Amino acid sequence: MTTVQKQELSVFDDHSTLSKALFEQGEHHVLFVTSKLGTSPPWLINALVETQVFGAPLTLNESSSSAANRAHSRLPIANSDKKAAIIASWLHSSDYFHSALGKLKIDQNRYQVHDYLTDFVLKNHDKPASKVLKSLIQELTMQSATDLLILEQPELLMHLLNITSDVLHLDFINPLTRIIPVVVIVSYTESYDNPGADSTERLSPDMIEQIRFLNGCFFKSIVVFGIKPLMTGRAKDITGTLTISRGGASLSHLPINVAENEYLFHTQKDATKLFYR
Amino acid sequence: MASTSHNPSILLRRVLALKESSPFVLVVDSIGRTGHCVLEEVARETDESTTIVYVSFESTRKPDYATYFLEGTKSESKLLSTIQSFLPTPEQAKTSKFKFLVMIDCVNFVAGPSIMNLVAQLASPTVALLAVFHKHQPEFRSPELENYPSSLDLLQFMATSILEVQPLANDYGSEQEHESQLQKLEIPRGLNSHRYKLILTNRRKSGRALTYTFQCDTQAHTFALIQEKNVQDGAQEDPEMFEGLTTFNLNTSNKQKVAKEQVALPFLEAQTFNTGGAIVYEFEKDDDYDEEDPFEDPF
């Protein structure tokens, strides 16, 4: 692998990871991250936060030590009053993100983590779903100056609040995308198995809601980051593949387009590197 | 009208420009190719004076071409009354010179039985309804309604024109590979590009459905008809097909083929409609015709 050339993460055809065009006045977009068993996406979440803070995913594109040095010398691209990103996770605690982002030398004041793993059920037990969703929206948009919201596995709300996919989309995802310029939805798609419209196979109600939610996320998104393991399993020097492809939403009104690409990635200790396929 | 049925490209342009008498146009899409491209083409082809009411369940951004932008709600009655507040009343519609178009970016959010009511209430000769349906979106069906048609079946039954968009696959193998990947929500590269396949089904007043397949380009705004080569090839006789099957010679010579093509089949004459659909009675010498009988049909 030493001879293989490293590759920088480029999502749009202006060679950017998060293009400035996405944050223009009146623009609202959804990015969709899908992951499978054995290839968890926190490194990509960290890279997106880092992009928002420093302008590029330094740790992903460079070696860890040089990235840390550059992070020290480089000033954040926005003023410090504004949160660069807000992370809401139903899968990881806030300590998890503080630890991971701390290693990337990102100041805790630059981002905010909402921990909905630790005591979400205790706090919202017996409350009506509509009220819980409203309070969540209120919490997440309180820092109205933020431009990037990352939702890690919001599909769990369907089971936690006993609501349908349509309610989750219409009463939670849509209101958030209306307020925040870029919303990143990170979902786990290992159990997704859609036999299609022509199939006579009967799906369980839970599976129907799961598929509807994930499909809905696809149709809303402008770009899909698909993370999956290698077809042949995990190799010694390759963890999996990252496919960047167009989502279902139209980009025709923007001056940019999605730069579709497929990368190999290798996660070792705390660092992830991308390689040419 | 007859000329359009012979030119599929003109028919498609007329459907997109809402010039065909088609109050309900259904756009069927999938993850492989979403239907936004068709909505944009319709907005481009229609007159600028057309009032476009865009009802969105998926996007929070008002498209540039939309006159009014509404966000979809779960309550069908509330949604209907909101949309209707932007449309003319039947009395106003009679005198109005302007066209109205309601675009719904995804009717999958409207629960099965309510869809019919929504379509019936909105689509009319003065208001065209253009609705997108994601065909791979599963829907919950209660056991009592197990044999009731699916939402897609109902919409396809009601639609006067159906525009199905599909990704443009290079060959059958890659199409199958894409399908198996999409079944697991693994989105391959190259889908949702500016080139796609469009299958137009247009229902005539007689009930006859015309189906054409086009290769479209959203950048050049071109619609090239794809000839169904497979069907034609399949209809042609392959001499090797009959080899070794029997001891008889089942192949036809060129002379026999020419003779076969020249045979005028009876149903072709019936389709000419020269007689306007009337029953043609030819009087014969043995027929008894009573002139005094008022109910006697002279022909």
Secondary structure blueprint with pairings:
The complex is a heterodimer of chains A (277) and B (299).
Chain A: E1 29-35, H1 42-54, H2 58-61, H3 64-73, E2 85-89, H4 94-103, E3 111-115, H5 120-124, H6 129-140, E4 148-152, H7 156-160, H8 165-179, E5 182-188, H9 205-220, E6 221-229, E7 240-246, E8 261-268, E9 271-276
Parallel strand pairs in A: 1-5, 1-6, 2-3, 2-4, 4-5
Antiparallel strand pairs in A: 6-7, 7-8, 8-9
Chain B: H1 2-6, H2 8-16, E1 24-29, H3 36-45, E2 51-56, E3 68-71, H4 76-84, H5 90-95, E4 100-104, H6 112-122, E5 127-134, H7 151-158, E6 161-167, H8 172-182, E7 195-203, E8 209-217, E9 222-225, H9 229-235, H10 254-262, H11 266-270
Parallel strand pairs in B: 1-5, 1-6, 2-3, 2-4, 4-5
Antiparallel strand pairs in B: 6-7, 7-8, 8-9
Helix pairs in contact in B: 4-6, 6-7
Organism (chain A): Lachancea nothofagi CBS 11611
InterPro entries (chain A): P-loop_NTPase
Protein name (chain A): LANO_0C09142g1_1
Summarize the structure.
Chain B: Its main location: cytoplasm. The complex is a heterodimer of chains A (277) and B (299). Chain A is α/β, with parallel strands linked by helices.
Write up this protein.
The complex is a heterodimer of chains A (277) and B (299). The mean pLDDT of chain A is 88. Chain A has helices at 42-54, 58-61, 64-73, 94-103, 120-124, 129-140, 156-160, 165-179, 205-220; strands spanning 29-35, 85-89, 111-115, 148-152, 182-188, 221-229, 240-246, 261-268, 271-276. With 277 residues, chain A is of the alpha/beta class. Chain A has 9 helices and 9 strands. By secondary structure, chain B is of the alpha/beta class. Chain B has one domain: 3-Layer(aba) Sandwich (Rossmann fold). Chain B has helices spanning 2-6, 8-16, 36-45, 76-84, 90-95, 112-122, 151-158, 172-182, 229-235, 254-262, 266-270; strands at residues 24-29, 51-56, 68-71, 100-104, 127-134, 161-167, 195-203, 209-217, 222-225. In chain B, a hairpin with a 4-residue loop joins strand 8 and strand 9 (222-225). In chain B, helix 4 runs parallel beside helix 6 (112-122) and helix 6 packs parallel to helix 7. Chain A binds chain B through residues 26-28, 34, 166-167, 169-170, 174, 177-178, 189, 192-197, 203, 205, 207-209, 211-212, 214-216, 218-220, 224, 226, 228, 243-250, 252-253, 260-262, and chain B through 31, 34, 36-37, 40, 57-61, 63-64, 71-74, 106, 108-109, 134-140, 150, 152, 179, 182-193, 218.
